[in-house]
Write a structure and sequence with these properties.
This protein has ten helices and 17 strands. The protein is an alpha+beta fold. Helix 9 runs parallel beside helix 10 (338-348). Bound molecules: zinc ion. The site of zinc ion has 7 residues, from loops.
């Protein structure tokens, strides 16, 4: 499962020139279609090629990187059927790394001096790892879902907790999760909440989905401590006796999708509530100016689109024209995507980045402090 820590690690990788290939590729579900993959990769590579001022020479995917991608696909494509995979390759750095992603993403190939990470951040945001608690009046089943795979949550040993199987049951118990059943009838909901809190402390905050009967969901919800209540993403009603882990995953994934949509709407609504002309800016040039001043607290970006531009190799100033700072155009290097540059600058300054289907003004930022008019 891709994590922010992995993204941060990738962001430390830097090539001397625009020779590092980032490829986001959809691997078809049908193994018979794998034969067409190398040709398709070639098409994506052609789109990554570019010429232009600021680029030291024509930028093309190198033979060694092409070979590295072919090698990774030849040995692993069958493990990635039906997934988007991110591949980072740079022969100069000895880099050839593939990361299968939890959700389908737009395909792209990008050549730059460092890995192109916008789609990774989107995957983390869209398809987070999460927890599911299914509760009936006497039992609870806890699951972890990551990369579309469901597993019984690893439970810390708890004082007074009795775990046992129940013969004659069907549904969840018959799916090898019976050892995880928690039977604590007396303080059942409180104990379940306590276990959830312990798992949350062990693995960090994750969205929480609750499934069960119409009357058992609110009972668990009522005893969740505030920290867990904040992680609650939504619920689904189902009779636990009829559930299988696969059904739990499907029902919970719809809850998570709706929760994500709600989060996106909330972020936009909150942004639009800010008085205009204060701490919010919209549009690329205003966001570039804000990034150059390390002023972005929250950045809202679209999922798609690559906007070529320039970055000063002395001060890092970003611009659409190569004259974004006192060092002038001669010190500017072409970059394939200014949105990526603003994203990385914002993260580097400790800001937050949200990818939205339709951000205000195509790209927008809330600032730590208002900028003087002349730089907006
Ligand atoms: Zn500069």
């Amino acid at each position: 499962m891709i994590s922010r820590a992995e993204v941060d690690k990738l962001l430390e990788v830097r090539a001397p020139g625009p020779s590092l290939l980032s490829l986001y590729l959809w691997v078809p579900l049908d193994p018979a279609e794998l034969r067409g993959l190398p040709a398709h990769v070639g098409e994506l590579f052609a789109l990554a090629a570019r010429n232009g001022p600021g680029a030291p020479a024509a930028v093309r995917v190198g033979a060694a990187e092409t070979e590295a991608v072919r090698g990774l696909l030849a040995s692993h494509a069958r493990d990635w059927l039906g997934h988007t995979v991110a591949i980072f390759a740079c022969a100069e750095l000895g880099l050839a790394e593939a990361i299968p992603l939890p959700c389908p993403l737009q395909e792209r190939a990008v050549l730059a001096a460092r890995p192109h990470v916008r789609p990774l951040l989107l995957a983390i945001q869209r398809c987070p790892a999460y927890r599911v608690a299914v509760v009936d009046r006497r039992h609870a089943w806890l699951f972890s879902i990551a990369d579309g795979q469901i597993s019984a949550a690893a439970l810390p040993p708890a004082e007074g907790m009795r775990s046992r199987g129940f013969s004659g049951w069907y549904g969840l118990e018959s799916h090898r999760v019976n050892e995880r059943i928690i039977q604590l009838a007396r303080h059942h909901y409180r104990d379940t909440a306590a276990l959830l809190e312990q798992t949350s402390r062990a693995t960090g905050a994750e969205p929480l989905v609750i499934g069960g009967h119409q009357d058992t969901i609110p009972q668990l919800l009522a005893v969740l401590p505030p920290g867990l209540r904040d992680q609650f993403a939504g619920s689904f009603v189902a009779d636990p006796h009829t559930l299988t882990p696969a059904k739990v995953r499907d029902l919970a994934s719809h809850v998570i999708q709706d929760w994500r949509t709600g989060q996106d709407q909330h972020v936009v609504a909150e942004f639009l509530q800010e008085p205009p002309g204060g701490r919010t800016v919209t549009g690329l040039s205003a966001c570039l100016a804000a990034a150059n001043r390390h002023a972005i607290q929250l950045l809202l970006v679209p999922a798609g689109g690559l906007v070529p531009g320039y970055a000063c190799h002395r001060c890092g100033a970003l611009s659409g024209t190569g004259d974004g700072c006192l060092h002038g155009a001669t010190e500017s290097l072409a970059v394939p995507d200014l949105i990526e540059e603003v994203v990385v600058a914002t993260l580097g300054d400790g800001g937050q980045v949200e990818t939205l289907p339709d951000p205000p003004g195509d790209i927008a930022a809330r600032l730590r402090y208002p900028l003087p008019d002349r730089v907006r």
